[in-house]
Amino acid sequence: MDFASNFSDQLNVGLILPEGIIIATLLIVLIADLIVGRNRSRGLPYIAIGGLLLSVVALYFQWNPENPIALLGSFSGDDLSIVFRSIIALSTAVTILMSIRYVEQSGSALSEFIAIMLTATVGAMFLSGANELVMIFLSLETLSISSYLMTGYTKRDSRSNEAALKYLLIGAASSAIFLYGSSLLYGLSGGETRLPEIASGIAQIEGGELASAIALVFMIAGIAFKISAVPFHQWTPDVYEGSPTPVVAFLSVGSKAAGFALAIRLLVVTFPFEEPQWRLIFTALAILSMILGNAVALAQTSMKRLLAYSSIGQAGFVMIGMVAATEAGYASMIFYLLVYLFMNLGAFTGLILFSLRTGTDQITEYAGLYQKDPLLTLGLSICLLSLGGIPPLAGFFGKIYLFWAGWQAGLSGLVIIGLIASVISIYYYIRVVKMMVVKEPHEMSDTVRNYPAVNWKLPGMRPLQVGLVLSLVVTSLAGILSNPLFTIANSSIANTPVLQKASLIEEEVQDKQVSLAEPKTPAIVD
């Protein structure tokens, strides 16, 4: 009886109830599609959205759990993972809203697309709380393989096939690199797979610094690929341009959030004594991402490629909180990702609407759009200005929080580079807004001049309208009413045991370094 009770406590399967809800929703979508047929499956996207929202509700009721460890120590359901899993579930719900019309118009099966996206969501959510190497790799591959399938989902489009092939080849290489780093950790720790035990095993080895550093570099390389950090960003522009736009929207928010969740947990728990090394690496990644992402975006003529390089630059901003490695730094990352969810998905919703109505995503074709489609112009303008950090929108407060956390951590140089990069980003965002709003009637592009009449009654257009309005409202109000989001971000860090333990370890390391640096007073012999 005691064994059964202890085993049940160690499994603690209640913590993965949100993932269980999404898996059940996935099965319902697949079975219902087989029963009702493709032509009568218009309600399935709303079933999927309902399951995702129910999963978020379940996450809300799991806040600050007494026992955050589940599945024999391989999964952590602490508040840090709850916030990241909520971001991923919400991003998928908004993405499904914007994908209904897009996928149907491409001639592909919508139910299968939703099933693959829900599978990717489950992988990303498990990755956010994974506390063991096998769980991390399985979750990472579930997310990655589903992303490859979604990237090439429009099989009749040669650009989509090319993007899927590039993504598959580069993604397989990054997975191999990450797996090699994991195998090094397994060997160094004496056969341990759980992250806390790996950290303890590495700390007891004498002369293992070089092997530990190699493992650290390999694992950061795998994470950098997932978050599109320079120089591991080569796949991003081509994949973003060739993939179906809803897939790009999910990759830019859901997949990126899972990558940052993995980075925090893996580095803080497994490499507490190598913190100076991984902070230095992320400093270089942040600087390169902010400079290259925003500088190259200036020269783009396609909105998809512009948002691709924009996402690279945004990853650089978020990494400032990672480099700070303080409670304020981690909280600023969470806050920024919460607001980034809506302003970035709002921008992609506007892009989908324009491309569905005109068949193009060239920036010059947006000239004079406000005269034909005021709602689309307003929504896209607000989301782009928020991405640039214009007050009083949500993106402004997100960047202020990131820069303040970096400044408090002594990263003045990195913050100054971030400010310069942010000013550069404002230029190319405002260029698009100016193209839509300021152009005179005679300067209107031929595409906008032949713009079809706005009709929201077409199948799948209402969800797009809801997604655009929702993103517009949240992006506008989240900046003014940002205190609840600040509270959620700060509480998630303060209530996460591994981050508190890491801060104690850091203080111990600093105390040891100070004691070693102090001169020893020679003993007086009588």
Automatic annotation (TrEMBL):
Cite a GO CC annotation.
endomembrane system
What catalytic reaction does the record list? a plastoquinone + NADH + (n+1) H(+)(in) = a plastoquinol + NAD(+) + n H(+)(out); a plastoquinone + NADPH + (n+1) H(+)(in) = a plastoquinol + NADP(+) + n H(+)(out)
Q: Establish whether keyword Protein biosynthesis is in the entry.
A: no
Domain NAD(P)H-quinone oxidoreductase subunit 2 N-terminal, first and last residues per copy = 14-100
Q: Where is the NADH:quinone oxidoreductase/Mrp antiporter transmembrane domain?
A: 130-425
The Gene Ontology terms for molecular function here are:
NADH dehydrogenase (ubiquinone) activity; oxidoreductase activity, acting on NAD(P)H, quinone or similar compound as acceptor; quinone binding
The EC code for this enzyme is 7.1.1.-
Top-level lineage group: Bacteria
Write out the entry's keywords from A to Z. Answer: Membrane, NAD, NADP, Plastoquinone, Quinone, Thylakoid, Translocase, Transmembrane, Transmembrane helix, Transport
Which compartments does it reside in? Cellular thylakoid membrane; Endomembrane system; Membrane
Q: Which InterPro entries match?
A: NADH-Q_OxRdtase_suN/2 (IPR010096), ND/Mrp_TM (IPR001750), Ndh2_N (IPR045693)
Q: A Pfam family name for this chain?
A: Ndh2_N
Q: Where are the transmembrane segments?
A: 15-36, 43-63, 83-103, 110-127, 133-153, 165-188, 208-227, 247-268, 280-299, 306-324, 330-354, 375-397, 409-430, 466-486
Query: Subunit structure of this entry?
Result: NDH-1 can be composed of about 15 different subunits; different subcomplexes with different compositions have been identified which probably have different functions.
Indicate the family of this protein: Belongs to the complex I subunit 2 family.
General function of this protein:
NDH-1 shuttles electrons from NAD(P)H, via FMN and iron-sulfur (Fe-S) centers, to quinones in the respiratory chain. The immediate electron acceptor for the enzyme in this species is believed to be plastoquinone. Couples the redox reaction to proton translocation (for every two electrons transferred, four hydrogen ions are translocated across the cytoplasmic membrane), and thus conserves the redox energy in a proton gradient. NDH-1 shuttles electrons from an unknown electron donor, via FMN and iron-sulfur (Fe-S) centers, to quinones in the respiratory and/or the photosynthetic chain. The immediate electron acceptor for the enzyme in this species is believed to be plastoquinone. Couples the redox reaction to proton translocation, and thus conserves the redox energy in a proton gradient. Cyanobacterial NDH-1 also plays a role in inorganic carbon-concentration.
Q: Which HAMAP family match?
A: NDH1_NuoN_1
What is the recorded name of this protein?
Answer: NAD(P)H-quinone oxidoreductase subunit 2
Instruction: Please give the organism.
Output: Euhalothece natronophila Z-M001
